[in-house]
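Entry 14: structure prediction run for Molybdopterin synthase sulfur carrier subunit. Input pasted below.
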Amino acid sequence: MANQIIVTVKLFAIYQETLQTPEIELTLPANSSVATVRDRLLEQYPTLEPWRHLTQFGVNLEQVKPEHRLEDGDEVVLIPPVSGG
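Run finished. Output C-alpha cells:
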C-alpha cells in the first residue's frame, strides 16, 4: 500500500456539525496535499463549500499551507473561521 496513506482528520465547528463526528480516518493517494482532505470532504458534503477558502490547516500540531504534503499517519486539523464573543 505504498501508493496510499492513511491520515486522521480532527473535525471542529462546522465540519464536526456537518459530519456528526469529532474525527475521521481517510485513505488518500500518496503525496496528497492537506487541501486534498478539505476537497474530499467538500465533494461528500457540498454544504461545506462556503468554507473552502476560509479554512486553515494544521498537521501534527503545526499550522501549514494548503499545499503541504501529507505523510502516512499524519494528524490533520481543518480550522474553520470561528466567531464568538
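Notes: The first helix runs from residue 13 to 19. Will compare against the previous run tomorrow.
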